[in-house]
Amino acid sequence: MMDMMTRIATLTSETLKALWPEAEGLPGAEELRGLLAVPPDPAMGDYAFPCFRLAKSLRMAPPKIAEALCGGWSHAEVATAQPVNGYMNFFLNRENFAREMMTELAEKGDRYGSSEMGKGKTICLDYSSINIAKRFHIGHLSTTMIGHSLRRIYDFLGYRTVGINHLGDWGTQFGKMIYAYRTWGSREEVEKGGVDELTRLYVKFHEEAEKNPALEDEGRAWFKRIEEGDPEAMEIFSWFKEMTLKDAARVYDLLGVTFDSYAGESFYVDKTGAVVDELREKGLLTQSEGAWVVDLSEDNMPPCLILKKDGTTIYATRDLAAAKYRQDTYHFDKCLYVVAYQQDLHFRQVFRVLEKMGYPWAKDCVHVSFGMVSFEGEALSTRRGNTVHLDDLLAQAREKALEIINEKSPDLPDKEDVARQVGIGAVIYTDLSNNRIKDIDFRWDRALNFDGESGPYVQYTHARCCSVGRKAAEMQLPEPDWSALTDDEAQSLLRLMGRFPDVVKEAAEKYEPSMITRAVTDIAQAFNKYYYEHRILDGDPAQAAARVAMTAAAASVIRTGLFLIGIEAPERM
Ligand code: ARG
Questions:
Q1: pLDDT per residue of the chain (573 residues) written in tens, 0 to 9
Q2: Is 134 marked active-site?
C-alpha cells in the first residue's frame, strides 16, 4: 500500500486535474505531498492541504479553491474532505485504513518493508576495516555498526551486497613491530598477551627509538623484508595478523557482524604498479619534492600523494587500486566507504583522482562519514592510551544488563542470553541513535535506561507484544472486527507502521540507519501509549482479535526494524 500521505496527494492531484484540465503550472502529486501537513489540532482532520499555492495558477481565492476541491473529492473510502479557511482538511476513513494496513501487514509478515528495488544491482560496503596489531576499540564501533546495518538494509531492498573489511595491514609500523618483537618480545608472551602484547612492543619501540634513532632504520629494514616477501618476516607478520583477526572475530561474533572479504591494504600492494603506470600514461603524475603526486589544485585540494620519495606507495595508492579492483570484480553500482569524517579529504582526493583517470563509476563511490564517540563525557584517543576496548565494553554491557534483569525479572528463563541481547542492543542502539555525522557520547545510564529512548526500551516493548500474543494464543478468537482500531492511539500506531517501508528506503538513500532507529522507537512509544489506554484482550472477542492482530504486527515491524540496525529482539524480558 502506498504511504497515506502520498496516496492523498495523488488523489488530490487527480481531483485538481479533473476540475481544471486547462490550468497551467499546477503542482504535481509529489509537490502536493510536500505541501500536505498534519494539523496540530486533530479536530482539523488527519491531514490538511493548504490551497494558497494554487491561487495564482487558478486565479481564485484559496477558500473558493478549497470548497471546489472538497466538492470534487470522490474518495470517501480513503478520507472525507472538508474546506476550512483555504485548507482542504482530510479525515481518514479510519476503519478502511485499519483494514488495509492490517491486511498488508499480515500478507507481508516479516518481509514488510522489503522491496525488489535493488534487483540486479550491487553495492560494495567497506566497513569496520580495522588495523592489524591494534585492539578493536570503541573508535571502530560506528564504522562497524553503520556498515553492518546498511548492508542489512540494502539486502532487504533486494540489492546484492558485498561486505568488505579493508584491513589496515600494510605500512612501516609492521617492520617496527617485528623488530620490537625480535628484540624485546617472545613467542610465549605474544601468544599469551595477544594484541595487547603487540601494542606494548610497539610502544616500547617508540620509547627506545627516541633514545636511539638508528632503530627507525632497523624498522624500515624489516618492513623492506616484508615487502620482498622474506619468509621469516612474512611468517611473523602473518602470525600478527592472524592474532588480530582472532581477537576481532570474538567481537564480530558478539555483534553478529560478517564480511564477504577481508582483502585489505596488503592485498592491493601488487596491484598498485598498474595504477601508477596508468596515472603516468594519462599524464596525471607530477613530481613534487621528489615524490609523485596528482595535482588537484584546480579542485582546491592539496595534491594526492601517490609514490613517496623512496618509490613506495601509500594509503591513497592502495585505495585507488582497491576501487578499481572492486569495480572489475564486483561491478558495483555503488561503493560505500563507511569511515570517520577525519578521512574526508582523503576520500575526496581518491574519488577525484578516479574521475580524472576517466572512470565514470567514480561518481558511484561514496564516503559515508560519521562523527566521534566519546565515553561518559570523555574524548578518546589511542595515542594518550585513553581507549575503551570493544570487548570490554560489550562484556560490561552484558553484566549491567544482567543486573537489571535480575532485579526486574528474576525468574526469566535464559537470563544470560537475554542479558547478552539487551546489553549489546543497548550499545548498538546508542551508536545508531543519532544522525551519523553527529558526535556521540556513550553513557551507561542512558544506554541502559529501560524507560527512555534506548535499545532495551524498544526490546522490552517487543517482548511485551509477544507476551500479549502468548496470552491471546490460549483464547479462541473469531475474525477481527477492524472497527476496533479506529481510536486515536491505534490510528497513530498504524500510521507509523504504514510509513515504515518508506523509512527503510530513505535510510538507504541517505545512508542513515538512525532513521530506522527513530522509526522503531516511535512505533514502540505509540504501542505503549495504546497499551496503557486500551485493554487488548478484554471485551468483544472480534474486537479483541483486531487488537491482538495489531499487537502482533507491531511486534513484527519492531523486530524487522531492530534486525535492520543489527539488534536482536528477545521474546521475553
Ligand atoms: N583502516 C582504516 C582506519 O582504521 C580505515 C580504512 C577504510 N577503508 C579504506 N578503503 N580506506 O582508519
A1: 678 899 999 999 999 999 999 998 899 999 999 999 999 988 899 999 999 999 999 999 999 999 999 999 999 999 999 999 999 999 999 999 999 999 999 999 999 999 999 999 999 999 999 999 988 988 899 999 999 999 999 999 999 999 999 999 999 999 999 999 999 999 999 999 999 999 999 999 999 999 999 999 999 999 999 999 999 999 999 999 999 999 999 999 999 999 999 999 999 999 999 999 999 999 999 999 999 999 999 999 999 999 999 888 899 999 999 999 999 999 999 999 999 999 999 999 999 999 999 999 999 999 999 999 988 888 776 555 667 899 999 999 999 999 999 999 999 999 999 999 999 999 999 999 999 999 999 999 999 999 989 999 999 999 999 999 999 999 999 999 999 999 999 999 999 999 999 999 999 999 999 999 999 999 999 999 999 999 999 999 999 999 999 999 999 999 999 999 999 999 999
A2: yes
Neighbours of 565 (CB within 10 A): 29
- The residue annotated as part of the active site, out of 56, 119, 134, 356, is 134
For a substitution probing ligand 1, which of 262, 339, 342, 372 has the most ligand atoms within 8 Å of its CB? Answer: 339
Q: What is the DSSP letter of 52?
A: G
d(CA 179, CA 140): 27
| Total-model pTM | 0.94
Whether residue 137 lies in the annotated active site:
yes
3-class DSSP state of 161: strand
What spacing in Å lies between the alpha carbon of 210 and ligand 1's midpoint?
28
Ligand 1 mutation target, pool 124, 129, 245, 381, most atoms within 8 A of CB: 129
Out of 64, 121, 140, 346, which one is annotated catalytic?
A: 140
Output the CA 166–ligand 1 centroid distance in Å.
Answer: 6
Closest-CA residue, ligand 1 atom 1, reads 168
Phi-psi region of 339 (alpha: psi -120 to 50; beta: other; left: phi over 0): beta
Using CA atoms in the order 107, 114, 420, 162, what is the torsion angle rounded to 10 degrees? 150
Q: Quote the ligand 1 centre to 143 CA distance (angstroms).
A: 10
Measured in Å, residue 128 CA sits from the centre of ligand 1 at: 8
Burial degree of 311 (CB within 10 A; 0-12, 13-18, 19+): exposed
- Contact residues of ligand 1, CB 6 A cut-off: 126, 129, 131, 166, 168, 319, 322, 337, 339
Torsion sign (Cα): 399, 401, 405, 411: negative
